[in-house]
Amino acid sequence: MGTSGSKSIDGVGAVSGVGAAAAGLGGAGGEGGEGGEGGAAEAWHGGAQLYVSLKMENAEISGDLVPHVYGSEPIIGTWDPSRALAMERELASMWELSFVVPPDHETLDFKFLLKPKDAETPCIIEEGPTRLLTGGMLEGDVRVALFKLNGDDEVLEFRVFNKADLVSPLELAASWRVYKENFQPSKVRGIPDISINVAPTNATEEGSAATLELDLEHYVVPSPPTAPPNGYAANLAATPASMIQTGALWTNDVLLSDGIQSPSSVSAKLEDRSNDKKNIEAWATDSSKNSGLIESKSVGTFTPLQKLDGQKGLFVDRGVGSPMLPKSASACSLASGFSFGSAKTMPEAAGAVAAAAVADRLHGSKEDGKLAIVLVGLPARGKTFTAVKLTRYLRWLGHETRHFNVGKYRRLKHGANQPADFFRDDNPEGIEARNEVAALAMEDMIDWMRGGGQVGIFDATNSTRKRRYMLMKMAEGNCKIIFLETICTDPNIIERNIRLKIQQSPDYADQPDYEAGLEDFKERLINYEKVYEPVGEGSYIKMIDMVKGQDGQLQVNNISGYLPGRIVFFLVNSHLTPRPILLTRHGESLHNVRGRVGGDTVLSETGELYAKKLANFIEKRLKYEKTATIWTSTLQRTILTASPIVGFPKIQWRALDEINSGVCDGMTYEEIKKNMPEEFESRKKDKLRYRYPRGESYLDVIQRLEPVIIELERQRAPVVVISHQAVLRALYAYFADRPLREVPEIEMPLHTIIEIQMGVLGVEEKRYKLMD
User: In terms of residue numbers, what domain contains 486?
Assistant: First the structure.
């Protein structure tokens, strides 16, 4: 569409530049005539027209009422409400009527009314005087249309938008072609939140283009480097910082790359330890003096110190859950004590980025203090698996979390091939060696917390009260300890875990005889059982037979606070039942074709073909999974993608809706760059924290997706999630344990299915590409 005479969508009044554009079009033919005026008149008759758009928006309209227009020529040509022209739904809450008039058209008068599209009553005419349209634009202050429902008891308010473009005949022809090719009315309104559709009677007429090969492996494509890590779960734990030695006997590239600790500081610490290994001290710091925090006596966590002099505290609005609230004049102003290096007013998005940073600093790592989750339990009870899952979950929520596996320390310090006698309770050398590596791991965890870490997962058997009291003593003044005990009484599950341990653990990597390794591990287990003492001290969580799911118990003692509460809620919904989770974007939509952000458009022809192929894939892949469910967002492009799938419940989640792009909804990135350059640059600098004006950031999306993650963990049957790019990036980051900073850049291609396999071996990924 031409834009030489266009007014912005919020504009009300005469079309800017119409006369100048008209004169330009007629200037070449104005030779020897009546001057510029005659040339302009010839230009109008030469075909230039005004393309006028009227839009109405209301997100709360209910029932079957549809906005209509009636009035004089050339809009309708009648004031008979029964012949009013229905406006077309453009978005979920937006209706539009567009028409073409000459630029010098006579004043048009009309009104809006509400009525069912295919019925005559009820008919509700808008309040107020008749609307007047001159030069393509509405006259006066007419941004709102009011309708009285049920007499005067209820008033329904619509926002009114008006836009006019001066276009040539060629542009009109192009617009008509686009309309004929791409316009599709909504097909999904009225579908309940949960529905099971039946097999169509004409299922065979879909055509061969929608069919798939019998062997789904034909569509498997390589997973990217961001795929979930595989292998022995304990190997995913942090590399022991205290085991780094100059001389390159051990290395710790991962730890150094994170900037937590340098070799020189570790070497100095090792030298200090060599002077007195047996005297273990716990470092204590007075945090309240340095950071303005006080310790809560009831919870043992740190909270912002209250100002006693009447000074207002700092309040940071992260916008989560209220993206549509208008921005106040002081939205970017912060309390004293925080400076961002410039007196210049920030653009709205940059203010959101700064607010999120301050919120993380004040309410993130300091909110619950430093927390140590200390695992307790006999070998082969799922401690490490639980530690890995909990670590992944807390990292995804934005908490600095690290997994410390004492077995990894033991193997580096004393070797991986220790026999069962090493774990006997009457072997003082073995007991001293095991306590030594436990102390080293605990010291490393405390050092890491001092450097900014928030939650440490301490993974070991910790099977005696003496060991646990040692850890509690070391934690005094440094972190709060919660014991997490895993108990399993099912002999079949224990036997399965033992066999997996023999197959995967580095302790038996050099053991060629599987049965000999199995016998050695069972003897080690007996040694632990002789001295095992269940947790009864301090704050603790007991997971009893939770792996089975049925008849499992979760016992909690002295647990309070925000983060511990989330941990308990996560654990009560976790289990080891193997099941696949299939993630896929909706089929290609019209906004995908046009390169526009957000919206609620329908599928393109390519997208409709993918919907049929996806249904074929689901039928083959989940042929014997009768309890599977299909999850979609509430936007029609995902619902339409799921519509050909038959035989499974379909559930619509508002939490799965695409990231809210606010005032940028429906724009291309080029348009954002041109019209909102500051917003464009702010997003470019920090896509994770950037919040669209009146919209959301990726961090906001992650917050609203937490209930989805909990429900995915709770499900015991396959789930197919049909959603959107930003949402699936956040979900995939959880399963693949990717850092939050990588979420906005994760590749999430169209027409591709990502299968996440959940089970005792952790998380495995497989990708199917059904279409290019």
Answer: 369-573
